[in-house]
Structure formats: structure tokens, C-alpha cells
């Protein structure tokens, strides 16, 4: 062959190798969710690609046969076409044997460089950039190649399958999508600007419903406004005015004997119609949903759906009432600070180095606000108050504090043994508010009490 014919053949071989490289990387990089969307929109090629991804063995066998065959042919043609010309050129300065060696080396470097650049790097980067668009275009030509090379494909594919069986491995692609995969995609979308940070947080909170306990969203026992069934009309009216809520548990004797609940709308209707309010009236008291305190928020949502209610009383293993939860409480957990008035915020940032946090704030919210990964003995409590009790090994008193993870947690207010407010400050900026007990905790969970 003449030089021009050899160069033309080399160009065809480079194009063929580029085709196989692009077909390989585009199928591997194509996202199944995007392909499924294209198939649902009526693109038959996308459906064909999905079937290829499910059984990619024959596809990649064709790619490897094609690439290796083209590479070998390219080396043979290139060496025969370019070596004589490079040998003649180098013969002007070198001896005949040295010129032949230099000519062969130069021919090898030129052919290898052309294949690396135009048959490998460029097509693979292009395939990674737009995998779905390219793979649907290359699917049919690859199907023709698989049909043309069927005997060769069968031989090598069966050989590869045998190796997988010997090694006890599966050759099938695992396309299961986990919650971690979705959260990772949401994080990538937030970094790319596709999702707002607030939207990403809402989606993350939805997935945490399976792990957050109902006690993290409930109104605790000491904050529950309830009626006794035998209370007179005047007491009920005063209670409504003093503690306006949408729903009130109705109890027999004390809060631990709940017999139902009453909706504020029914009470207001009677008030507006100048009718007496008597909770002995069974038509006014509705049947209440009782749930255990070990349920997750997702399980509570499912119970709300089953009984068509949006209010539940939470009891512990001793059948004592520990709090109440509403559908709005669960949704507030999902939406974060998107819902609810500002004066009900459990975490208030005072400045860049300090926060004022309610003692009943769930630990998950505290970790997120402080950018911490975990707190010690995480399985022993669910709220910030519980963390302080576990670390101090007693009911905290005002000015008691715990230092952990670069932060100082100082008790500011205790109301009837309940931790009301906690000041959290970065260490180095925290100032003691008085005398009390301080626990210096380390990541190794070594606590050393010291008096201050």
C-alpha cells in the first residue's frame, strides 16, 4: 500500500476503536433513571439500552474483541506504513541499523499516540459527558456487531461466565437504589445548585422519619393541656382561654387515664351557640389513638393514616402518658423551621459562637445545628436534657455544664427538675455563669468531674 492508503486505513481503524470506546463508556455511565424516563416518553432505543444494561456480557465482549482486533491491526499497518519513511529520514544522520531501530520506535510512538488520543481519551471523555444521548445512538450499531460476531461472542462470554461461577461472583448488575444513594444525589444536586439547601434538608428529614422516635416530636407530659371528664363548664372555658390548643385529651381522674379527646372546634361551636359544655357527653368526646413511645415517626404516620386521625396520646411501657403528638408535629419535623412561629423555635442562635437551646430539643436537631457527628452514649437518650443527665449522672442543676466536641453545654434554667434552657458555646468563647459542676468529656468518653 502507498503511504496515503496506509494513512487512510489507520484513520478507519482509529475511528472503529473510538466507536467501541465510546460505546463501552456510555453504556457503563448511562443512568438508568434517565433511560427509564426516556423510554416512558416513547424512545424505543432507551428501552433497548435498558435491556443491554441488564445483560451486558455480550455487549462488552464485542467491545473488547473489537478494540483488541483494531489495536493489533493498527500496529501492523502503522509499522509497515510509517517505519520505512522514518528509517529513510533517520538514515540521513544515523547508520542503517540505528536508523531502522529509530524508525520503528518513531512509528510505534506516533501510532500509539494517535490511538491513545483519538481512539481512547477523547471518545471516553465524550461518552462520560453525555452518556444517555450517545448510548441510544450507538445501541443499534452495537446490536448489529453482536449479531455479526455471534460465534466469537458466545465463546468468550461463556468463558467469562465460567470464571465468575468458579470465583462465586455474580455477573449481574446491581441496580438497587438505597436511601443513601438518594441522599448522595440530593447532596450533589445541592452542590450543583439544582436543589436549594433548604429543599435538601427537607428531603433528608423525610428519610430520617424511619429512625427518629415519636418522643423527639411530641409535646411532653408536663406541657399537655387536658380536661378531666367531670370538670364544670366554667373551668373548661377558663382552660381554653388560658391554654388555646386545637385538641385536648379528656381524662378520668388524672392524665394517665385518658378516655378520649375533644376538638377545640366542637368546643368553640358550643361557646358561640351559648350551649353548655359537658365532657360527660359522649358525642363531644372522640375516641383517642394511643401509641407506644418506642414507635418511629414513620410508624406514627402510618397509624394516623389507618385510623384517619391527626392526634395521638403517647404512653410508655408502664401505660403512663409521656406526651401527645399531632400530624402537625410530625410535619414540623420534616419541614424544620419552614413552619411554626419564630417564638416556638427550640434552637435560637445568639451569635456565631453561642446558641440558646430548649432542653427537650431532639439530639438530631442539636447535632445538625452544631455540625457535630455524634454525642457520647447516643443510645441512652433522645433529647439535649437527656444528654446532660447521662453525662452528669444526676438531675442537672442551674449552672451545671458539660464540655464535649469543642462546645460547652451549660444549664441556664431548671423548672421542676426539667431542664428548660441550655446555653451552648464554642470552647474558648464560653463564659461561666456561676458555680456548679463541670464535666470535661473527651471523644474516648473519659469524663473527669471538676468543681468550678
Describe this structure in words.
With 452 residues, this protein is an alpha+beta fold. The protein folds into four domains: 165 residues, no CATH class; 31 residues, no CATH class; 125 residues, Roll (CBS-domain), CATH 3.10.580.10; 107 residues, Uridine Diphospho-n-acetylenolpyruvylglucosamine Reductase, domain 3. Helix content is 51%, strand content 16%. The strands form three sheets. The chain has a seven-stranded mixed β-sheet, covered by helices on one side. Strands 1-7-6-5 form a four-stranded mixed β-sheet. Strands 2-3-4 form a three-stranded mixed β-sheet. A hairpin with a 2-residue loop joins strand 10 and strand 11. Helix 3 crosses helix 6. It is elongated. 25% of the residues are buried. This is Polyamine export protein. Involved in cadaverine and putrescine tolerance in stationary phase. May facilitate the efflux of both cadaverine and putrescine from the cytoplasm, reducing potentially toxic levels under certain stress conditions. It is found in: Cell inner membrane. It is a multi-pass membrane protein.
Properties at a glance:
about 450 residues, alpha+beta, CBS-domain, 4 domains, about 15% strand, disordered C terminus
Amino acid at each position: 500500500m502507498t503511504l496515503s492508503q496506509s494513512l487512510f486505513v489507520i484513520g478507519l481503524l482509529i475511528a472503529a476503536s473510538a466507536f467501541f470506546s465510546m460505546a463501552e463508556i456510555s453504556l457503563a455511565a448511562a443512568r438508568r433513571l434517565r433511560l427509564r424516563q426516556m423510554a416512558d416518553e416513547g424512545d424505543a432505543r432507551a428501552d433497548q439500552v435498558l435491556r443491554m444494561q441488564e445483560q451486558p456480557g455480550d455487549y462488552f465482549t464485542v467491545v473488547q474483541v473489537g478494540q483488541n482486533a483494531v489495536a493489533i491491526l493498527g500496529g501492523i499497518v502503522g509499522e509497515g506504513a510509517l517505519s520505512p519513511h522514518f528509517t529513510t529520514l533517520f538514515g540521513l544522520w544515523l547508520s542503517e541499523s540505528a536508523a531502522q531501530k529509530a524508525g520503528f520506535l518513531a512509528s510505534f510512538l506516533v501510532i500509539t499516540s494517535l490511538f491513545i488520543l483519538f481512539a481512547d481519551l477523547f471518545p471516553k471523555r465524550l461518552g462520560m459527558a453525555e452518556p444517555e444521548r450517545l448510548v441510544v445512538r450507538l445501541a443499534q450499531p452495537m446490536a448489529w456487531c453482536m449479531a455479526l460476531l455471534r460465534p466469537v461472542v458466545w465463546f468468550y462470554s461463556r468463558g467469562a461466565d465460567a470464571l465468575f461461577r468458579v470465583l462465586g461472583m455474580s455477573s449481574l448488575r446491581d441496580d438497587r437504589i438505597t436511601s443513601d444513594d438518594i441522599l448522595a444525589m440530593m447532596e450533589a444536586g445541592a452542590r450543583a445548585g439544582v436543589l436549594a439547601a433548604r429543599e435538601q434538608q427537607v428531603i433528608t428529614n423525610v428519610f430520617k422519619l424511619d429512625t427518629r422516635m415519636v418522643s423527639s416530636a411530641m409535646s411532653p407530659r408536663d406541657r399537655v393541656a387536658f380536661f378531666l371528664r367531670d370538670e364544670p363548664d366554667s373551668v373548661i372555658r377558663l382552660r381554653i382561654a388560658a391554654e388555646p390548643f386545637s385538641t385536648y385529651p379528656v381524662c378520668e381522674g388524672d392524665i394517665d387515664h385518658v378516655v378520649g379527646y375533644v376538638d377545640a372546634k366542637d368546643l368553640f361551636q358550643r361557646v358561640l351557640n351559648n350551649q353548655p359544655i359537658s365532657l360527660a357527653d359522649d358525642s363531644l368526646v372522640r375516641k383517642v389513638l394511643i401509641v407506644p413511645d418506642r414507635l418511629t415517626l414513620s410508624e406514627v404516620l402510618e397509624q394516623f393514616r389507618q385510623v384517619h386521625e391527626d392526634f395521638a396520646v403517647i404512653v410508655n411501657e408502664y401505660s403512663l402518658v409521656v406526651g401527645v403528638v399531632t400530624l402537625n408535629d410530625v410535619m414540623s419535623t420534616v419541614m424544620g423551621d419552614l413552619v411554626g412561629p419564630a417564638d416556638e423555635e427550640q434552637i435560637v442562635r445568639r451569635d456565631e459562637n453561642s446558641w440558646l437551646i430548649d432542653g427537650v430539643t431532639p439530639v438530631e436537631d442539636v447535632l445538625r445545628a452544631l455540625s457535630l457527628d455524634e454525642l457520647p452514649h447516643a443510645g441512652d437518650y433522645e433529647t439535649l436534657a437527656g444528654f446532660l443527665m447521662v453525662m452528669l449522672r444526676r438531675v442537672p442543676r442551674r449552672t451545671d455544664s458539660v464540655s464535649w466536641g469543642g462546645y460547652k453545654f451549660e444549664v441556664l434554667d431548671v423548672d421542676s427538675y426539667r431542664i428548660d434552657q441550655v446555653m451552648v458555646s464554642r470552647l474558648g468563647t464560653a463564659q461561666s455563669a456561676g458555680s456548679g459542676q463541670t464535666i470535661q468529656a473527651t471523644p474516648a468518653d473519659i469524663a473527669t468531674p471538676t468543681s468550678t
